[in-house]
Amino acid sequence: MPEKKDKKGEMLTYISFGIGGAIMAMGIGMYLLKMPPIGGVIIYLDLIIVGLSVLLAIPGIYDFMATRRVKKIEERLPDFLRDLAEAGRFGMTLAEAIVVASTGRYGALSDEIKRMAAKIEWGVPVNEALESFVERVNTPLINRMVAIMIKANQAGGNVADVLSMVAHSAKETQLMEKERSIEMSTYGFVLVTSFFVFLATIIILNTSFLPQMGKAGRAVAESLAHSAVTNIPVQIAYQTIPTIRFMFVLATIMHGVGDGIMIGLLRDGKVKGGMLFGFALLISGYLILRLSGAV
Question: What share of the chain is helix, strand, coil (3-state, %, to 5)?
């Protein structure tokens, strides 16, 4: 069964891109027009970061909540399938087994099972009830497992054995996903650590190295201005220090967003899965630079 598009998620993504893009455009306009800080505090980079944060945070939070819902629903799926298989061994049809199972407790899956059982009691064929269940829940694992259940029910025969195999397969899939998540979390930790090491390096350069280079450059320039020597081979281009500081900020933004998205790709294989991580690294990195005087 093809996975249905999440229209609500797409709409929120478009809204976040519109709002975030507008705020970023304000910041870019403020920079191009050389406008003074708003209220004497808010600079153009603040607006750009806020806009980028909106662009990342809204889809990221929605995807995080949707993923958590999917995991909660899929977590109890093997138990539900196993109970259906046991009921089938006692001579119940698939429809009767679903109605009986609807009285059990399956966490976040319980409400959906009760809806499916209610449709069956109203006379809806069990295959249609299962298809409606898939459309409402729409998770990859449930899509695969229910498709097998529908085919087995249509083919007839011993559905209980098929349900037992499906339950075992669902449990094995969940265990493999947990193992993969644990392994990938190690790489995620490495990425986060590297980001903050990079951030610490920038702060040290901004607070210690660059100010000293600026003082030395100005001292050399002043000494040259009061002497007749003009062909000194070594000079310090201290005028470029503000540009270097700005490049450090840009590097922090790209590093934070890029690392966050990479974490999401490693964990879930989705760009949206890393937007929340990118938002967290972006905000924390920029605030640290802002408070340390690097911006």
Answer: 80, 0, 20
The pair of three-digit structure tokens given for residue 13, joined into one six-digit string? 């993504």
pLDDT, mean over the chain? 83
Phi/psi at 43 (5° precision): -100, 175
How many Cα atoms are found within 13 Å in the side-chain-facing hemisphere of 279?
Answer: 21
Q: Please give the backbone phi and psi of residue 138, each rounded to the nearest 5 degrees, phi first.
A: 55, 60
Better-scored residue on pLDDT, 261 or 163: 261
Whole-prediction pTM = 0.78
Q: What is the pLDDT of residue 1?
A: 47
Q: Distance from CA of residue 288 to its chain's centroid?
A: 22
Give the tokens for residue 273: 């899965």
Give the tokens for residue 194. 């590297």
* Residues 76-99, mean pLDDT to the nearest whole number: 84
Specify the range with the lowest mean pLDDT, choosing from 147-151, 173-177, 211-215, 223-227: 223-227
User: Given a cut of 80, is residue 216 above it in pLDDT?
Assistant: no
Residue 69 near residue 26 (C-beta atoms within 8 A): no
First-to-final CA distance of the chain = 51
Q: Closest by alpha carbon to 159, among 91, 105, 61?
A: 91
Q: How far apart are CA 225 and CA 112, in angstroms?
A: 81
Q: Cα dist. 38→28, 140, 250, 283 in Å?
A: 14, 48, 21, 20
Q: How many CB atoms lie within 10 A of CB 111?
A: 13
Distance from C-alpha of 259 to C-alpha of 142, rounded to nearest angstrom: 31
